[in-house]
C-alpha cells in the first residue's frame, strides 16, 4: 500500500503532464467518423482498486445466522455491508460481516457464490462518486486524485465522467470462462459505455488503477472486437496488478488481508474471510513469468510458481486447489492482447518483494522478505 500511494499521487500529475500529446489525444476529437461529434471531451470511465467499491446485502428467509443477532437484518431489505468499516466495529457487526461477506466455491458450476440467504449488490454503478477508500488514513487511494484532476479539465459526473464499481471479492473471467457476477457487471459496463458514447458521439476512455486494471482488461477482452473498435478510444492501466503485487498475494493468503482490504480489527478470523474470496487466489505468480525461481523458502523445501498447489496445501488451503486449477491457471495462460489503443503505467527499478522466508514453516508469523528490482508493488 505504501508503495502504491506515491504512484497514485503522481497520477493526476502524469495526467496533466501528458499534454499536449496524449492528453490532447485523449480529450480532443481527432478520430474519424464516430469521433466528430459535439463537445471536446471523450467520456471517461474510472475503475479503482480492490476494496474501493461499496457492497450492499440483504438477508432472505434462507439465511441462517451464525449467532442470533446476525439475523437482525433478515427480511429488512438492502443495507450497507462494505461501506464504512469503522462502523462495523462500532456496531459490533464484525462477526456478522464475516459470515455475510464470505464466498463459497461451487465445483458443480465452477463458480463462486454467496452464503445461501445472502444476496449482495454493488451500489452507485455509473456515478463518479462510487469508489472510496475505507481506510481513514489514506482516504484518497481510490482514484480520487485522478477524478479531481479530470473535473478540473471539465469532466462532469454522469455526463462525461463515470465510475464502474465491481464486486472485488470475485475475479474477472478471461474470455470463455464462466462468472455469473461478472457477466452481469460486463452487461452494465457495456451499456454505460454505449450510452456515454452515443450521448457525446465519441468513443470512451477507460482509466483503471491496480486491481481495477485487471477488471477493465477483462471487460475489454470479453467484448467482441467490432464493439471494441466502435466504442473504445483508449484503455489506460495504471499499475494493473493485484493490490500490492504478486508476492503480497502469497503473503495475504498466508497471513491475512491487511495489505489488500481494510477492516479496523486485528481479528485473525479476517484471514479466514479473505481466504474465501476468489480474489485471494488470484495473482499468484505464474510459471510463465517466475519460472523455477524459489519464491517461498523454508528449511525443508522451496516453492516456485510451479508449486503453488503444494503451497496451498502446506498452508491448509486444500479447498482452494480446485478453483485455483480450474479458474486461475487458465487465466495465467491467456495472453490475448485487448486490441485497443492502450497505455500501461508501471514503476521500474523500485525495491520489490521477491522472496518470502518462512524458515521454520510457521505460517502464523510474518515472513522475512527478500527484496529485488521491480515495480515496487
Ligand atoms: C463511519 O463510522 C464511524 C463509526 O460509527 C463514524 O464515527 C463515522 O462518522 C462514519 N464515517 C462516515 C463517513 O460515515
Ligand atoms: C444520469 O444521466 C442520465 C441522462 O443522461 C439521467 O437519465 C440519469 O437520471 C442521471 N443519473 C443521475 C444519478 O443523476
Ligand atoms: C531454496 O532456495 C535458496 C535460494 O533462494 C537456496 O539457497 C536453497 O538451497 C534452496 N533450498 C532447497 C531445500 O532447495
TrEMBL record:
Domain of life, per lineage: Eukaryota
Signal peptide feature range: 1-23
Gene Ontology molecular function, alphabetical: O-acyltransferase activity
Keyword Signal: yes
InterPro entries tied to this protein: AB_hydrolase_fold, LACT/PDAT_acylTrfase
Database matches in SUPFAM superfamilies: alpha/beta-Hydrolases (SSF53474)
Keyword set, alphabetical order: Signal
Single GO biological process annotation from the record: lipid metabolic process
PANTHER family: LECITHIN-CHOLESTEROL ACYLTRANSFERASE-RELATED
Protein name stated in the entry: Uncharacterized protein
Organism: Eleusine coracana subsp. coracana
Gene that specifies this protein: gb08148
Amino acid at each position: 500500500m505504501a508503495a502504491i500511494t506515491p504512484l497514485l499521487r503522481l497520477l493526476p500529475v502524469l495526467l496533466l503532464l501528458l499534454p499536449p500529446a496524449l492528453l490532447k489525444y485523449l480529450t480532443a476529437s481527432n478520430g474519424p467518423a464516430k469521433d466528430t461529434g459535439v463537445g471536446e471531451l471523450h467520456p471517461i470511465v474510472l475503475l479503482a482498486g480492490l476494496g474501493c467499491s461499496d457492497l450492499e446485502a440483504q438477508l432472505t428467509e434462507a439465511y441462517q445466522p451464525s449467532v442470533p443477532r446476525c439475523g437482525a437484518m433478515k427480511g429488512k431489505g438492502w443495507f450497507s455491508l462494505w461501506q464504512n468499516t469503522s462502523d462495523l466495529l462500532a456496531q459490533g457487526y464484525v462477526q456478522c460481516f464475516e459470515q455475510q461477506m464470505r464466498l463459497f466455491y461451487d465445483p458443480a458450476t465452477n463458480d463462486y457464490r454467496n452464503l445461501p440467504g445472502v444476496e449482495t449488490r454493488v451500489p452507485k454503478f455509473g456515478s463518479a462518486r462510487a469508489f472510496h477508500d475505507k481506510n481513514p488514513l489514506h482516504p484518497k487511494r481510490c482514484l480520487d486524485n485522478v477524478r479531481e484532476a479530470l473535473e478540473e479539465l471539465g469532466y462532469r459526473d454522469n455526463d462525461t465522467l463515470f465510475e464502474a464499481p465491481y464486486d472485488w471479492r470475485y475475479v474477472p473471467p478471461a474470455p470463455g470462462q464462466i462468472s455469473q457476477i461478472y457477466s452481469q457487471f460486463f452487461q452494465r459496463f457495456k451499456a454505460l459505455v454505449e450510452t456515454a458514447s452515443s450521448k457525446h458521439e465519441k468513443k470512451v476512455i477507460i482509466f483503471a488503477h491496480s486491481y481495477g486494471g485487471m477488471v477493465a482488461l477483462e471487460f475489454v477482452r470479453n467484448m467482441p472486437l467490432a464493439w471494441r473498435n466502435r466504442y473504445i478510444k483508449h484503455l489506460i492501466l495504471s499499475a494493473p496488478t493485484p493490490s500490492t503485487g504478486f508476492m503480497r498475494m502469497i503473503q495475504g493468503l498466508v497471513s491475512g488481508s491487511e495489505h489488500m482490504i481494510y477492516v479496523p480489527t486485528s481479528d485473525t478470523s479476517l484471514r479466514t474471510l479473505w481466504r474465501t474470496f476468489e480474489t485471494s487466489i488470484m495473482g499468484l505468480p505464474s510459471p510463465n513469468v517466475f519460472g523455477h525461481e524459489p519464491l517461498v523458502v523454508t528449511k525443508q523445501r522451496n516453492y516456485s510458481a510451479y508449486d503453488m498447489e503444494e503451497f496451498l496445501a502446506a498452508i491448509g488451503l486444500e479447498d482452494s486447489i480446485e478453483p485455483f486449477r480450474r479458474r486461475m491457471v487458465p487465466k495465467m495462460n491467456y495472453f490475448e492482447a485487448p486490441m485497443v489503443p492502450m497505455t500501461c503505467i508501471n514503476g521500474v527499478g523500485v525495491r520489490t518483494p521477491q522472496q518470502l522466508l518462512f524458515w521454520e514453516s510457521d505460517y502464523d508469523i510474518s515472513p522475512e522478505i527478500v527484496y529485488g528490482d521491480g515495480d515496487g508493488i
